[in-house]
Structure prediction request, 648 residues.
Amino acid sequence: MFPTPVQKAPAWVRHAYTIILPIALIIWLLPLIGVAITSIRPSGDLAAGNYFGMPSRFAGFENYTAVFRDSPIGWYILNSFKVTIPTVIGAVGLACLSGFALAVYKFRANLIVFFLFVAGNFIPFQILMVPVRDMTLKAGLYDSISGLVLFHVAFQTGFCTLFMRNFIKSLPFALIESARVEGVSEWRIFRYIVLPLMRPAIAALSVLVFTFIWNDYFWATVLVQGQHAMPVTAGLYSLNGQWIAAWHLVSAGSIVAAMPPVLMFFLMQKHFIAGLTLGATKG
Amino acid sequence: MVDVTLHNVKKQFGAVSVIKGVDLTIADGEFCVFVGPSGCGKSTLLRMIAGLEEISSGDLKIGGNDMTHVGPSERGVAMVFQSYALYPHMTVADNIGFGLRMTGHDKAEIEKRTKHAAKMLQLEPLLTRKPSQLSGGQRQRVAIGRAIVRNPEVFLFDEPLSNLDAALRVQMRTEISTLHQDLKATMIYVTHDQVEAMTMADKIVVLSAGSIEQIGSPLELYHRPKNLFVAGFIGSPKMNFLNATAVPAGDQIRVTLPGGVDILLPAGNAGVSEGQSVTLGIRPEHIDADAKDGAILPAKLRLAEYLGSETMFYVSLADGSDIAVKADGLATAKPGADFRIGIPPKACHLFDAQGVAIINGDLTK
Prediction:
């Protein structure tokens, strides 16, 4: 059996394992622990240079209240939802349709179109930053939620299509043929046979895309300037004072901002993990 | 009810020719079986009739109407797939009624027809179950039920029994035959199992490498195979073939078998040239294991299978060729023993070097 279960390994391996694993875990969590501790640090500690030591007292309550009192973080979170939910619906919905077309129909350009969707994922979006910003400006979508949603949908649809196409490809094709012989129209085949069978894929992909979009910082800063459309990831910036960086407040705000995707992950853990493996194993 | 006619139907995948010109008429209400080894194109031919594969050239008529380029939904056919293709998220009742629901039949009508189909196939207690809760045989019945409710003019079956175990296969075979008698519909059935073909068909179409080898009733194919392929394919266990030479001898043909034994076959209106090399075919069940009848050949018993009802002997002739012999279940010969077999002339088939039959040992005559 490969890999050999650690319980069967020699004693020294087992001991090393029990020592190294927690160390690796702590290293992995270190940034998060740092942020969490900073978020309960009084501002005086930072001024005194106590960045990494124990906080001199617990200031969590005042920091978190300050975040909600001094910044429109509630508004930012609302913006984040306004961006994330339409993007998830748009990208997953489009991907269901394009994935169905690519998986079911044989046409000459099928593979080329599919590869275009896949290849789009490999373009580093930093190189698109300037042209996309110009384009949004000209289209009058700059600094608006709808602009942000449109571009997120555009960038996510490639990955989602890859995912959905592979999932539909793994469904037995005889189901579709059987329905065709029965005289069912193509749209109804999609609506009544394929779509219900795609439920696990839709759930998994939605959870995945939700976390991607919620955590996006790049496009939020590139395409949005004003408070009215700012998602929470970019909005945290406003917690800093004009001259000083309020790390304790930014940390507290980050923890608040991270809550929805973390909650989403724990509530939908099953779907999330399915989402990471579904496309891979059933391709 | 309708007939199905194929005229010079061909199928090409790129440069590869899969169906090489098929001419076939299936009469109204006939049970027609396509049989052949895997890869011979029988499923492709069926899918072309269903409209799931494009017909590259030639034409197809169903009930006199040209259906060559008509979509599958408008052909009035129903198909049962090898994998059953049941919709996993629907109950049995929904599976059966789905096609009707999607094509705008009213609720009462769907319910009536679903009930009727379920009753015919003894599916009534299972109507609220999902396919995953059914056994293989039950799933197969649902798939058939889904075909029945639509009152199709032609039923197409694509190896429907190959996923079932042996006992269930025999049972479903008789059920499908009964169904055919009740519905009197035209049915086309694809299988690679020649026993299925023999037991169910009115007409068997033997296919090999994309062409029809022979069309005929089961007994016709058994007694009068047109060529070596059909002779070897139909019948179980397989027909024995012996290399031999033939010379004309008046109104008979003298065939010299391996080991130098001669056998005289009635020539009928067949002719051979002097010393022509031929293949003599004889079915295991027609060989006389007691060596009392026909030309007697000495042999060595290599292997014996005692099945109770019968015993299969595999013997080697002097020149090393192997012969299967179906003997009485009480035969007791042991492997290694000397063995003599009798070849009755009236059961012998003779094929020329191209594999075309010269003489058919038709026992029905």
In short: The CA atoms of residues 261 and 267 of chain A lie 10 Å apart. The domain at 73-239+255-281 of chain A is CATH 1.10.3720.10 (MetI-like fold).
